[in-house]
Amino acid sequence: MEIVSGVHQIRLPFPQGMSGYTNVYVIEGSNGNILIDSGWDDSEVIWAFREGLREERLKFQDINWIVITHIHPDHYGLASKLKELCGAEVAVHRTEVGLINSRYKDFDGLLKDMGDMLSSNGVPQAELTELKQASLWMKQFVSPDLPDIMLDDGDRISNGSFGFEVLRTPGHSPGHICLYEARKRWLFSGDHVLFNVTPHVGFHPQSGDNPLKDYIDSLIMVDRLGVNFVFPGHGPVFNSLKLRAAEIFYHHEARKEAILKVLNDGLKTAYQVAAEIPWKLEQGGVAFGDLEAWDRRLAVPETIAHLKLLSSEGKVGEIDKDGVSLYLAKE
Q: Which residue, 20, 133, 192, 281, shows the most beta carbons closer than 10 Å to its own?
């Protein structure tokens, strides 16, 4: 649909009957069109994109640039094939470009590092292989070609009608970007801010040392912008950025309090902490043991990210015992 004049949203399905969709946006301009994000690399997704263009009376060949907010499969997977179909240039932040090879091509080292990280945070050996390999199925839905353009924070992209500033917003991914149109006060937020889901922020071998602090600092930065409409990578477009940001800040404070409460019982690994707090709060709460492998794989790095932030705030201490990290509350 045309959300506002010149901005068309196409909802692309997840593959293999999975629930959910990725919002991609075609922004019309006097000097060409910009596509923001691409969806998964899957024949059904390509078909849905073509039908979406037809319904909006748009053409493949009018897309000149494909800007990727981050290289997760549901945003980057189809980029190289759409480039072939459109004859467009693909643009990705420089930090994300540096992760493509180790994540999607020569990934054995990353897989080992992930296993070591999970093990050192208390994941039992009986679960280690399953959690370590929980994301490998996604590789089949990504064509990991390098982009034509490497973006940096503060770069500007214009199609003649609209001009966007590139805002690096690390946290969900180290080189995640939002695009800000200051004149219209539009924010294309990728997965940085979503209307009804708190974005995943986890500690892992590619996340940086304190990804949740990075995320919160990024959210504070965009919260200070004048924004009329937020165009997210999933879920509805919305116009209440400050309210949504406040909800996300509250969520993370509540999670920190829940973790500190667990740590008041004694030294625990991140895995043990994750097992004692509820998950999928937007669904009313699900026990850790009832989560599927992929969701448990997300839960442990999220818990570590909160622990790293609490440690940097001086509220949690970390000690090593036989190669395993143990945490305790200082308050």
A: 192
